[in-house]
Design brief:
The complex is a heterodimer of chains A (114) and B (112).
Chain A: E1 5-7, E2 10-13, E3 19-24, E4 31-38, E5 42-50, E6 53-57, E7 64-68, E8 74-78, E9 87-94, E10 104-105, E11 109-113
Parallel strand pairs in A: 2-11
Antiparallel strand pairs in A: 1-3, 3-8, 4-5, 4-9, 5-6, 7-8, 9-10, 9-11
Chain B: E1 4-7, E2 10-14, E3 19-25, E4 30-38, E5 44-51, E6 56-59, E7 62-67, E8 72-77, E9 86-94, E10 100-102, E11 106-111
Parallel strand pairs in B: 2-11
Antiparallel strand pairs in B: 1-3, 3-8, 4-5, 4-9, 6-7, 7-8, 9-10, 9-11
Classes of the chains: A mainly beta (114), B mainly beta (112).
Chain lengths: 114, 112
């Protein structure tokens, strides 16, 4: 069974631009969660989707948004990029109800904002 | 507010030693606790998941324990190897929420 895949793996953007990251969960998994990892703040929860519905959202500004498609693939969008958005963005999929079950992570997308 | 703490932040031991990594959390109302490892610049690999009703889980040389009443979990690594060098993170999920709350991690170096 293929693991969680994320594209692209690396991105370089300039301040003010917007970016879209993609995550394909493990086949059969319906829950997708997104996390931001930075050296200063560590891992922080962004949001979680289940069956195309956002069920939970972390404490991030509205510039961070996401969606999930009927095939469970998810995208995350960041608008008006700031230097502080430079981070490793990780998505995780789960077979059932979000974090109640084991989460499997993708390799991440490394975003650099200049 | 749930907070997760991992001590020590870094640990360096000779190959072959048994070692223990610690994770503590402030709110005992957790649904489960998960241990991960992260290699430099890489994603996260799930090591062990302990449900709140369980006391421990084992996988190969790894054993994780959970004591909800004291808000503690330990990850025991037996006969450490250089390939075990990585950052180890613990995370808890809450009863009423789907997000994982993370510790800052322990950076482990196993010296050959």
């Amino acid at each position: 069974k293929a693991g969680v895949t994320q594209t692209p793996r690396y991105l370089i953007k300039t301040r003010g631009q917007q970016v879209t990251l993609s995550c394909s969960p493990i086949s059969g998994h319906r829950s997708v969660s997104w996390y931001q990892q930075t050296p200063g703040q560590g891992l922080q929860f962004l949001f979680e989707y289940f069956s195309e519905t956002q069920r939970n959202k972390g404490n991030f500004p509205g510039r961070f948004s996401g969606r999930q498609f009927s095939n469970s693939r998810s995208e995350m969008n960041v608008s008006t990029l700031e230097l502080g958005d430079s981070a490793l963005y990780l998505c995780a999929s789960s077979s059932a109800s979000g974090a109640s079950y084991e989460q499997y992570f993708g390799p991440g997308t490394r975003l650099t904002v200049t | 507010k749930q907070e997760v703490t991992q001590i020590p932040a870094a640990l360096s031991v000779p190959e072959g030693e048994n070692l223990v990594l610690n994770c503590s959390f402030t709110d005992s109302a957790i649904y489960n606790l998960q241990w991960f490892r992260q290699d430099p610049g890489k994603g996260l690999t799930s090591l062990l998941l302990i449900q709140s009703s369980q006391r421990e889980q084992t996988s190969g040389r790894l054993n994780a324990s959970l004591d909800k009443s004291s808000g503690r979990s330990t990850l025991y690594i037996a006969a450490s190897q250089p390939g075990d060098s990585a950052t180890y993170l613990c995370a808890v999920s809450l009863n009423s929420n789907y997000q994982l709350i993370w510790g800052a991690g322990t950076k482990l170096i196993i010296k050959p």
